[in-house]
Amino acid sequence: MSENQNMFADEYDRLDDISKKEEILKEAKEIPADADYKDVMPTISALQKKWRRIGEGESAYEESLRKQFDEVLDVFYAKQKEALKDVVTAKEELIKKAEALVDSKDLNKATNEINALFDEWKKLGYTDKKTDDELWAKFNTARQSFYDNRHELREQMAAKMQDAVKVKEELITKAEELADSTSWKKTTEAMDALMEEWKAAGYAGKEHNDELWDKFRAARKKFYDARSDFYAKQNAEFAEKVKSKQELIEKAKAIVEQNAYSRENSDKLKELSAAWKEVGFSGRDKEEKLWNEFKGTLDTYYAGLKAFNEQKHTDWLNRMESVKSRKVDMIEKQKKQLTWMERELTSVIGEAAFEEMQLDIEDKKAFIEQLEAELKELEDKIAK
Questions:
Q1: Distances (CA, A) of 204 to 8, 152, 198, 209, 216
Q2: 374: Cβ–Cβ under 8 A, 6 or more apart, which residues?
Q3: Distance between alpha carbon 146 and the CA centroid of its chain, in Å?
Q4: Contact, 279 vs 248, CB < 8 A?
Q5: By C-alpha distance, which of 278, 281, 190, 195 is closest to 235?
Q6: Contact (Cβ atoms closer than 8 angstroms) between residue 99 and residue 142
Q7: What angle do CA 197, 203, 209 make, to 5 degrees?
Q8: Model-level pTM greater than 0.85?
Q9: Class of residue 21 by CB neighbours under 10 A (exposed 0-12, middle 13-18, buried 19+)
Q10: For the chain, which residues make up each domain, given as ranges?
Q11: How many Cβ atoms are within 10 Å of 194's Cβ, its own excluded?
Q12: Residue 205: band (very low, low, confident or very high) from pLDDT cuts 50, 70, 90
């Protein structure tokens, strides 16, 4: 080929390259300026590859095309650069969150969170290689530390669960030994203490925990069911006793309301008191109230009886004082008559009349002595 032909071929190739670059520039300019850089970067990369395959031209026009092409691409690279800053910030935030989970004791929740952080990390995409490697090293170190701690914690938990199994088996044995006890209060306290120990023992593992709990609960249920049956029966008995005591109270009140203080009524109340004792204890909730009501009714009666007897005694004393007063008056009269008879004796004429008067005087003295003896007896009665 001649030199002219070579020059013509070179010029043709140069013009063809310019045409291709103009086409590439046109395609670049057609990319919407507000497009998301993530959506258009594959297109931009493809256009750059095409441009590089063509090569760089030497003419001022080709330099102008290159400058325009770079300006179009710089818009999206600026967006990418800004977005990559956000990626770095987002990844640094994920690193902080991962590091905060390293010592977490809630393994299930923390594992889900660390996995979620990793999923977010993958969605963020890449920055430049150096920055991304540094960020990944920090994030992965946090993840690995978490998994190492999780492994250690699980080993510790496994050991604790084995200890919990042993403790709970011992508690089951104790509960089963207490299940048939009828010392309700003492055994209830013991069962409550076992429950507190059970809670303190901790989780025994999925394989054993439910089975152990079923056994422990069955032993407790056996005791508490028996206790419930006992108290149900006892409460029924108490209810009958309460009913009986209420009836005794009503009977006692009926007697008191009569206001009749007789031996018969007093005996009836004694019988009611004896019946009260025979009924027996009627339960802590009712016994004191019932007893206070019954005792109050009896106290009312006996207070009335006391007042009645005191009044009766007062009336008797008054009668006795009246009798005494009459006795004293009668004695005084008889003594006066005796004095008159003794004085008249000196003036009696005749032996027969004198002897008769003497006999009358003796009779009078005897009568006075009798009255005085009756008076003394009466005074002794009053004094008592």
A1: 91, 18, 10, 5, 13
A2: 327
A3: 38
A4: yes
A5: 281
A6: yes
A7: 100
A8: no
A9: buried
A10: 3-87, 162-236, 238-307, 322-383
A11: 19
A12: confident
